[in-house]
Design brief:
Strand content: 5-15%
Radius of gyration: 20 Å
Mean pLDDT: 91
Order of helices and strands: HEEHH
Helix content: 55-70%
Length: 114
């Protein structure tokens, strides 16, 4: 059975915000056109599966700025979480388990009761 860890509140908050930023970035990227720059559509059926893309109007400067802002915040949070002082207190044998555990701790805490 996996051990429970006493994660510091700032580490938990950083992990939770990282989850939120990644979800927001993914949702934004799904809404945007497939190409950053305006490009013509294409159809290619010479590979192992057919690939088709409609013409892309590209991203607006505001959309590009929003994606860059979210990516920058994601990098900052990833560095904060992975380099947090808490990890120096965890034995090498437990690090993988602890790092996997924190990713799911936030999900467990936010899950509505069954």
């Amino acid at each position: 059975m996996a051990e429970t860890y006493d994660f510091p509140s700032d580490l938990l908050a950083g992990q939770e915000e990282l989850h939120q930023v990644r979800a927001e970035l993914l949702a934004l990227l799904k809404r945007l056109p497939w190409s950053v720059e305006p490009l013509d559509g294409f159809s290619d059926d010479h590979g192992w599966r057919k690939v088709e893309r409609p013409a892309s109007p590209g991203w607006t400067p505001d959309e590009q700025a929003e994606v860059e802002k979210l990516r920058q915040r994601e990098r900052e949070l990833a560095v904060f979480v992975t380099c947090h002082r808490f990890w120096s207190e965890v034995t090498p044998k437990e690090k993988v388990d602890a790092r996997m555990s924190i990713k799911h701790t936030v999900e467990t805490e936010n899950r509505p009761p069954s």
